[in-house]
C-alpha cells in the first residue's frame, strides 16, 4: 500500500482477534479484541466499533447566486448531546450496497432538496471518526443545474419531508479554506 498515506508497516501488523456482536439494529455494535505491538511488546485491547454503512455527502452550491443549499433535519445524536436535535447540514445519505457513491450523492441531493445537479466533483473520501466508526464518507461539490426545475415538496419521498432545505449566502457561512485547484 505505498500510495496510501495512512499506511504504516508497524500499524499494519495489528489484527482483530475476535469480534463480539452486541447489537444489530440501525447500527451494528461489536466489541473487538485487537492485538498489536506496542514498544516492541505484544499487547491486546478491546474497542467498541459501530458499523452503519458508508455514506456520501454533497456541498450543493449555486455559482451564479453565490449560495449553498443546506438541509435542516432532526439528528438524534445532537438531540441527546445538546437537547436540540435540529441540525443544518449538507445533503447526505447511506450508500446502498455496492452502489457507486456518486450515484448515492445525486440521489440524496434530489430526495432531500428537490434540485438536480449540473456537475458533481469528487473531493475526498474520509473516515470522520475512525476510532469507533467503520463509516467512510465520500465528499462532493455539486453545482445546481438551473435547467432542472426544483421538485415541489409534495413530490419528494415521505422520509425527506422531515427535512427542510435552506439557502445560505456564502457571506453568512463561516470561512472555509479551499484547495488551490479542485479536480475537474
UniProtKB/TrEMBL annotation:
Biased composition (Pro residues): 174-184
GO annotation, biological process: nucleoside phosphate metabolic process; ribose phosphate metabolic process
Residue span(s) of domain Nudix hydrolase: 51-184
Record GO terms (molecular function): hydrolase activity
Residue span of region Disordered: 150-184
Keyword annotations: Hydrolase
Catalytic activity reported: GDP-alpha-D-mannose + H2O = alpha-D-mannose 1-phosphate + GMP + 2 H(+)
Domain of life, source organism: Bacteria
InterPro entries: NUDIX_hydrolase-like_dom_sf, NUDIX_hydrolase_CS, NUDIX_hydrolase_dom
Segments of skewed composition (Low complexity): 150-173
Cofactor entry: Mg(2+)
PANTHER family according to UniProt: NUDIX HYDROLASE DOMAIN-CONTAINING PROTEIN (PTHR11839:SF18), UDP/ADP-SUGAR PYROPHOSPHATASE (PTHR11839)
Protein name per its UniProtKB record: GDP-mannose pyrophosphatase
Organism, scientific name: Methylobrevis pamukkalensis
Gene: nudK
